Amino acid sequence: MMAAADSSAPGEVHTVSIIVPCRNERGHIEAFCRSALAQQLPAGWQLQLVIADGQSDDGTRALLATLVAQDARVSVITNPRRIVSCGLNLALAKASGSVIVRMDVHTEYASDYVAECLAALARSGADNVGGPWHAQPDVKAGPTQRAVAAAFQSRWVAGGARSRQLDYDGEVDTVYLGCWPRASIDRFGGFDEALVRNQDDEHNLRIRRGGGRIWQSSLIRSTYHPRARLAQVLRQYLQYGYWKPFVMKKHGQAASIRHLVPGLFVASLLMAAPLALSGLLLGGLALIAPLAGLVGLYCAAVAAMTLAVARDASLDTAATLRLPGVIAAYHLGYGTGTLFGAWDALRREHGRERFAALTR
Predict the structure, then answer these.
(1) In a domain, 289, yes or no
(2) Using a CB cutoff of 8 Å and minimum separation of 24, what contacts does 294-301 make?
(3) Is the residue at 348 inside a domain?
């Protein structure tokens, strides 16, 4: 796709379409659109911005109407189901570009973000390219959000995911957001609308199982602003964990072994808990040992991760003190969600609505 564009006749113009799902983003949508529309494209390329609005009721839609009237490059469509995967597919149907770039409203992008996506496609010949997932707290962030961002970026907390490695260039199993030649979308299809979360992981797994390649370039730079409250992080990772078994059910495999570890750990805790309770009631102290051992080992691991993350991110004392809770929310939230999801994936075709609510 990119080779054909590079060898096109002088004066021929190609379109790159940015697709964005959103709902109730009144405080962020204008700044995001300014950033997207200011992207510096290479010669021979023009930009289209397609926003799928999930029936916003906070004034976002009025702001979008103003943007459409001011700039012909902007299109807004309605996403009645409000789910991200549905919005992405509706935006894909509206997009006219030979290259598709996915963006998120709560991410800030380098001015050459799209240009580097196009360059990475040309260099790699991959079916999907993207940059590393770089989390940073807001300018006036409190200690909890600083801790959340630091834990998110840490290889110790993320299980060594390459998508969190800011300097990694090469093939990956999944990538943040994504950029596809239209031919790859036509070949592998759009996003699974049965998935409220993990639709990007499932799409990337489908690409790899179909013989495609996914590439990460450290030159594709963006900054993601994570949740600012611990309860939001816990709900977010409960959802991530919950929808993962539905991806596994569809493809008969996990995208990566690291996705299974939190669920296995929480399952071990649940199996050890009745033994411990019996030991307390019957005086059999040996029955308490499995649960005590698991909890003790995890607490020691969290303590070690806290020290490592705080050192690597140069966190202050206030943020460091919040790290153990943040790390536990990541792991235990994801693991608990995975168990709920596995139970439901075995019994039903679609997930529960309670795990589809927005977490911001």
Answers:
(1) no
(2) 294/265, 294/268, 294/269, 295/269, 298/265
(3) no
- Is 277 inside any structural domain? no
Per-residue pLDDT of 259-305, as tens digits, reads: 778 888 898 888 888 877 777 776 666 778 888 888 999 999 999 99
- Hey, what amino acid is at 307? L
Q: Is residue 83 part of a domain?
A: yes
Q: What b-and-e string marks burial along 11-20, b requiring 16 or more CB atoms within 10 Å of the CB?
A: eeebbbbbbb
DSSP state, residue 39: -
DSSP result, 290-347: HHHHHHHHHHHHHHHHHHHHHHHHT--HHHHHHHHHHHHHHHHHHHHHHHHHHHHHHH
Beta-bridged to residue 78, according to DSSP, are 53
3-state class (DSSP) for residue 146: helix
Domain that includes residue 64, residue range: 2-143+163-228
**Which CATH number does the domain housing residue 196 bear?**
3.90.550.10
25 Cα distance to chain centroid: 18
Which residue has tokens 């303590």? 303
Which of 190, 172, 174 minimizes the C-alpha distance to 182?
Answer: 190
Tokens of 231: 């309860």
Predicted pLDDT of residue 122: 96
Distance from C-alpha of 131 to C-alpha of 338, rounded to nearest angstrom: 27
In the chain, the number of structural domains is 1
**Count of CB atoms within 10 A of residue 100's CB?**
24
Phi, psi (degrees; rounded to nearest 5) at 181: -65, 145
Residue 357: is its pLDDT beyond 70?
A: no
The pTM score is 0.82
What DSSP letter does each residue of 194-236 carry, written as one string?
T-SS-HHHHHHHHHHHTT--EEE-TTS-EEE---SSHHHHHHH
Q: Residue 43, Cβ neighbours under 10 Å: how many?
A: 6
